[in-house]
Specification:
Number of helices: 18
Largest sheet: 5 strands, parallel
Radius of gyration: 27 Å
Oligomer: single chain
Strand content: 15-25%
Structural class: alpha/beta
Number of strands: 15
Length: about 500
Amino acid sequence: MADPILIVDDAPINRKLTQRILTGAGYDVRIAEDAETALGLMPELQPRLVLTNVRLPGMDGLTLTRRIKEDPLMRETLVIALTGCTAEEDLKRALEAGCDDYVLKPIDTRTFPRLIEGHLARRAQEAVFAHSAAQFTPADLPVWAGDLCRDFLREGYLKCEEMLSLGSASPVDDLRRSAHLWGGLAAMLGYPEITVLSRRLEEMLRRPGAMPKAESSQTLEKLSTAFTQSRVPDSTADKRTRLPVWFIEELASKRIAVSGFDPREAARVTGLFQAAGAQVTAGAGEGCELAVVGVRTGQEACPASSIPVLLVGTTPGYLYPPALLGGGAMDFASAPWSGDELLARACRLLNQRHGADAAGIAPDTGKTPSVVIADDDPTTLTLLRTTLRNYGMDCRIAEEGEQALVLIRSAPPDVAILDVIMPNMDGFEVLAAVRNDRSLRQVRVMLLTAMQQEADIVRGFALGADDYVLKPFSPVEVVARLKRLVRSEP
């Protein structure tokens, strides 16, 4: 049976030409003179493909596309825009509206049928990918595969962001190889959305001629979002990756202002807090209790605020803003950040850990900060001790948990830096012992944990950690966070 195709065009000559070309190629073609008529035909016709002119009387082609993609019964329909405009920004708007591709007019009658055939074949192949992937999810993987999933999602996100930052200067061959690799790995690990988007991107980049910048960038942005929003299910991740109930209860009644993000990141941050039950507003947000602000490389200023501020890095590799060293209730999350991390830091700020109780915990301004560093890695110990001593801090070191606890109890430091994984007692056990000892309640605790181990972050905050730093870390970031903890400039 021929694939049904709907042509939407108000120009009779264009409709007739396109209809004859596709009918001659064996397709079942219907026509509509405007978008309203097309929407009326859609439920009965259920076309596999809609070819729509961008400029239509009344509802234009881009609005028609949005209506199609918003309808659960029609969103899988392919939509190709027919346009006589070659401006990159106009083509990008078509893709942002949901168009799967665009064709520049006048149509090349020799290649047009092959183009349509290629799109329909690709969509059929994507359906096969999605169906087969749906039969398998990361939950079916063995427990040891959790780290593979985490690494795959993180590295994919970083590569996408790198390529997006390069724009038109991004190497096509490098991106094509990455897309090919992502498609295969995502299929094996059970991420169908990443599989489909990766195959689509790879095909785009194999087309002869100039690279379709707007289309490939749009697909790359969708991939970046898919990498950040995909999760490692419970069967492959530590069960503690789920936020404690008190975290969710803390957020459920709060009003949160979100600003400084591009639309894609703003949607991600907003969705994250809304899923936790918070009320989210854009911009300054009158009456809000927390501000979540996106910052990027080179941004020095921090918005003045009478409420706690969570600064969120939007540029991978950007460690922390200078404003972090200032006073007030403020915290910072580096990119790429996880959803659990953002919610955990927000809860800490709302609990006023750096707010009203700061003066009671901070040492005297003129005092040399004292630090206990505990890590079983000699390189990490040496790096931290040398760096902190260069900044005028008094350091004592321990190579395992029990020794660290002895040092902390014998002469309570201002801050204890604890590696999560240590022999005898791990960092969590030392942290719990410190928090259960009333004589040590003034000691601030910073945890060191491996990159993207959200379970460690959440568990550490739940046990009473004041901050954490991810390995591999920047010594400068450690110093910046320590200065905020001790409220002292050595």
